[in-house]
Design brief:
Blueprint lengths: L20 H4 L5 E2 H4 L15 E5 L3 H12 L4 H14 L20 E6 L5 E7 L5 H11 L4 E3 H10 L10 H11 L16 E6 L5 E7 L20 E4 L3 E7 L1 H6 L2 H10 L4 H13 L11 E7 L4 E5 L5 E6 L2 E6 L1 E2 L4
Parallel strand pairs: 1-13, 4-5, 11-14
Antiparallel strand pairs: 2-6, 2-12, 3-4, 3-7, 6-7, 8-9, 9-10, 10-11, 12-13
Bound molecules: N-hydroxy-L-asparagine.
Length: 337
């Protein structure tokens, strides 16, 4: 019988992790410490594959991705279809349909996708199309470009057969109208407000892909683009090494090219957990960083199927589907250890 080796995070605390309101809705959340019982066989890491991880509590999305992987689908198909679940969910106010609008009432989407060959596609400032991640995939596969923006991205989507849809739901419109009473834009992210989905998967062949999709920050300036569609910032995949995806205040992720940084740190020998922690450290240790006022979180996976997840503030979590178990895992964080 093969020895099962249980991977542990170096920074486990396991206690004192209070749950944010988003997370309170997740009844079966577990801490990093408990997740240590998720086995990865050191000798045959393939035993832990396929696997999918995603930012925040998005079990329906990881379940969809897992189904794709279980049916022999590629990691690329898995991350696209997993992200589409969240995009179509009108109750999620940070992604796709039902996303909170910018300060002028427009829902504008950012998304990207990256495959095992290092190909990538991205759409920024896209309006009126629900499945931004799929448009990003079309950019990757059907054009000589990496990014399409605004009207150009929208027209391209229609050419490819995506339907035009009003993304501003009654609930999001109501929230925007309420916000307009004060129109106070603070670039401060309440940790409970995030559900941008970033997803990474390894298929049964051991190939890695990733995707990220968001409506960005609520009540942002019209035209603002965050980290999520920026390859290297919101997402980076290197099939030789691993992959990373970010969530939180995009401006801070862009300034440190966060996802690329995490993958490069793994290339230098760090575990996914150590790499995520180091990338967060880069942000908080900048001179005059006001990190107490914003959230950034990273999730990462390496070629062996080991995962890491870490954030500045409490309240960040990762959903992981591996070995037939779909679970939401509370991340450790810089402020609370
Ligand atoms: C952005 N990073 O547009 C995104 C927002 C986000 O959870 O992740 N929200 O800056």
């Amino acid at each position: 019988m093969k020895r099962r080796n249980f991977i542990k995070n170096a920074t486990l605390t396991g206690t004192g992790l209070a749950l944010g309101s988003t997370l309170a809705s997740c009844m079966d959340i577990v801490t990093n410490k408990e997740s240590a019982t998720l086995a990865i066989d050191e000798n045959t890491s393939k035993a832990a594959l396929p696997l999918v991880i995603a930012t925040w509590n998005v079990k329906n999305s990881t379940a969809k991705a897992w189904e794709v992987l279980q049916n022999g689908g590629s990691a690329l198909d898995a991350v696209e279809q997993g992200c589409m679940v969240e995009e179509a969910d009108e109750t999620g106010q940070s992604v796709g349909k039902g996303g909170l609008p910018d300060r002028d009432g427009h829902v504008t989407l950012d998304a990207c996708i990256m495959d095992k060959h290092g190909n990538c596609g991205s759409v920024v400032f896209l309006e009126n199309v629900v499945h931004a991640v799929s448009v990003a995939r079309k950019v990757m596969e059907d054009t000589p470009h990496v990014m399409l923006a605004g009207k150009g991205a929208e027209e391209f989507a229609y050419e490819k057969g995506f339907p035009k849809e009003n993304l501003l739901t009654e609930a999001s419109k109501k929230a925007w109208e309420e916000w307009k009473k004060t129109s106070e834009y603070k670039p401060i992210i309440n940790i409970e407000n995030h559900d941008t989905i970033g997803m990474l998967a390894i298929d049964k062949n051991g190939d890695i892909s990733g995707a990220c999709t968001t409506s960005g920050l609520a009540y942002k300036m019209h035209g603002r683009v965050g980290d999520s569609p920026i390859i290297g910032s919101g997402l980076f995949v290197d099939n030789e090494i691993g992959a990373c995806v970010a969530t939180g205040l995009g401006e801070e992720v862009v300034k440190t090219v966060g996802s690329f940084l995490v993958v490069e740190l793994m290339r230098q020998g760090k575990s996914p957990q150590e790499a995520c922690e180091e990338a967060i450290k880069r942000i908080v240790s900048k001179p005059n960083s006001n990190y107490r006022d914003f959230q950034v979180g990273y999730i990462a996976v390496n070629k062996k199927g080991e995962t890491g997840y870490y954030a500045i503030h409490k309240g960040f979590s990762m959903t992981k589907y591996q070995d037939g178990i779909n679970e939401n895992l509370e991340a450790t964080n810089y402020l609370n250890g």
